[in-house]
From TrEMBL:
The lineage of its organism: Eukaryota, Fungi, Dikarya, Basidiomycota, Agaricomycotina. The keyword tRNA processing does not apply. InterPro entries: Wax_synthase, Wax_synthase_dom. The chain crosses the membrane at residues 28-45, 185-205, 330-353. It is found in: Membrane. GO terms for molecular function: O-acyltransferase activity. This is Wax synthase domain-containing protein. GO terms for cellular component: membrane.
Amino acid sequence: MSPLVPLICTLIPILVLQLGTTLDLRAPWNVATCIMIIFVCLTCIQHTMTDVLYIDYVIGMGIASTAMDAIHMTLLVRPLHIFRHQEQPQPAHELPWSKRFIWAAQLCGSPRGLDWNHRVKYLPEHSTKSRQEFVLSHLTSAASHTVWLDLAQFYIEHNPAFKSAAAFASQNFTRRILACSGYMVFYHCMCLIIHSLMSAFAVSFTSSKPSSWPSLFGKWEDAYTIRRFWGRTWHQLLRRFLTPFGKEMASFLGFKPGTNGSSYTQLYTAFFISGIVHVGGDAALNFSHLGLSWPFFIYQALAITFEDMTIAAARRAGVTETKWTRKMGYVWVICWLVVTTTQWVTATVIAGLEDGKAALPSRFFRFSLCDILVRYAGVL
């Protein structure tokens, strides 16, 4: 299969969503549009196979994210009427169709709502650096994360556990933690490198401002609870549609805003929908293991509920927040994520290997500085 096919199948659902957004349809045509976009997503997700475990999962997840955003854009809100760019001179629904399409492309290309009236909460602070300083810092960030990416790539390529599903499953828990950590480092660094290069390019060659490109991830020191990890430290790329889904569900169940019922309904709905998005990755990875990612996200909602109960009990007992309670929080977050993420990544890697996919085929990742240095030293 040509490598262009997965790329085209990734872009088609986004283009169809943009087209549907420009039409500003009401019932029943908005429902028909939503069904059509989801059908396009389901069709395209079957043709995204690159036989690269990491790439297939990310593409499948991206297409599923487009499907969820389609439900949000066509059924829950009227984008042309409620979303507005900061530099937009007139409402989008008053623009001619060609400009509405460009507007929709900008909207879909900014899932965190940067420079829009729906900017998601808790994003990192605006950059106050000059253009030159911003570009230099992001190129430096890309270079430093490339080193970590190369280390993770070297570890994965030379770890026999990644050669077959049986080998990966036969590892003891400690080795499995190391293997899964290597894979998550690879994923994390790849995301940061892509974002850093895109940011540097946009600020260098377009009118885009440094303040329009906050960091992809928040501060790690904020992650002293599971809630804060997912709400502040981890990327917020899905939050634009997760929040409306949660609010609609809370309203449907009759919970008033600000109540515990509303809060926890939104919490569980957000992780439920997030799980569905990642099930798209399962579908692209190995359709016979559909749904293996979903429990991980429900576990996070359960952990946050337990965490809230524990914090509330501690406050009633007179315990106040100190640097030591935060340190205990960091330990709790690390332990929880190590255990649950290891189970999740193990399941996805085994599913991909069973389907004949390779972790990092050399045709995609041919150059490795670590590999060259080790071979030069005569170790391998």
